[in-house]
């Protein structure tokens, strides 16, 4: 039985590597691969510096598989997910696993694949490519899994067992919405702000004014979650309940603690939005991060002006490099731009 991983980036490669280490047959859809299925070596360098290579199958398209996979892991960014799902139309009954950041992946996949089971996943381990076919683990983190729909328990149990066998922390969550919203809270930290200012998370959290902006977006997201009846939960390697509690403390108390913890949580890896804005082109995940908070707030009748302002500003920075350059390394300009959109930053 083959596990198909759609997306050969850092996340997809890590999950494919882990399944292969656990003895599963794995094929990875890798952009740019031509010809039929081929064997390739994938190496992960662990936190101790030990290199652990595995051999797996690489294909250019899902259709290159001779047999239907038992499960499909969609490991692409949200803006590429619809195309990735469409590419797997030949396997309408294979269980799908969604590992995207943000809110909306499960609804998209379930709508396109109604006959298939669905498992939601959230990855908290930071990993980065260091060379073709090589990844480095930056933090331990782990993988959280939750049943989406359909009869997925056998697949869920098997995946949990496989990832544990590869040395990953695994946590099973009963509620996929609580899991994904909790991961969203972690994804918001220093992401849009860091992208707009081109500053690292630690620097942002050491600045009292920028910390208040960060705290404001999280408090808005927590208010939306409460209105939706969703509570933060512990993820594998990250107890988001602690983050929520710290953000609700007075800033003078919460900021010193969070500045230490959040600054080192990513293992030195830049948040996704900073990478995208710095590159100056391409789509952004912000619509499924801060933008998801805005849409959910609109649905439940709750204003989210800070998240709305950050969403709009990231989109503007990507569409107009001059706008991005004007904001870069200028907290005063960012705070003014947020205030001009009617957002009041808490103190």
Instruction: Quote the average pLDDT.
Output: 94
Largest sheet: 11 strands, mixed
Number of strands: 13
Class by helix and strand content? Answer: alpha/beta
Tally of DSSP helical segments: 15
Rough outline: globular
Helical fraction equals 40-55%
Write out the strand line-up for the largest beta sheet, numbering strands in chain order. 8-9-3-4-2-1-5-6-7-10-11
Rounded to an integer, what's the Rg over CA atoms?
20 Å
Helix and strand topology:
Elements: E1 2-6, H1 10-21, E2 25-29, E3 38-45, E4 51-59, E5 71-74, H2 78-86, E6 95-98, H3 105-112, E7 118-123, E8 127-131, E9 134-137, E10 143-149, H4 153-165, E11 170-172, H5 176-188, H6 191-197, H7 201-206, H8 208-228, E12 234-235, E13 238-239, H9 240-248, H10 251-265, H11 272-279, H12 290-300, H13 305-319, H14 321-327, H15 331-340
Parallel strand pairs: 1-2, 1-5, 2-4, 3-9, 5-6, 6-7, 10-11
Antiparallel strand pairs: 3-4, 7-10, 8-9, 12-13
Tags for this model:
347 residues; alpha/beta; 11-stranded mixed β-sheet; two-stranded antiparallel ribbon; 13 strands
Q: Explain this structure to me?
A:
- This protein has helices at 10-21, 78-86, 105-112, 153-165, 176-188, 191-197, 201-206, 208-228, 240-248, 251-265, 272-279, 290-300, 305-319, 321-327, 331-340, and strands at 2-6, 25-29, 38-45, 51-59, 71-74, 95-98, 118-123, 127-131, 134-137, 143-149, 170-172, 234-235, 238-239.
- It is an alpha/beta fold and 347 residues long.
- The strands form two sheets. The chain has an eleven-stranded mixed β-sheet with strand order 8-9-3-4-2-1-5-6-7-10-11, sandwiched between helices. It has a two-stranded antiparallel sheet with strand order 12-13.
- Strand 10 (143-149), helix 4 and strand 11 form a beta-alpha-beta unit.
- Helix 6 runs parallel beside helix 11 (272-279).
- The radius of gyration is 20 Å and the shape is globular.
- The N and C termini lie far apart (55 Å).
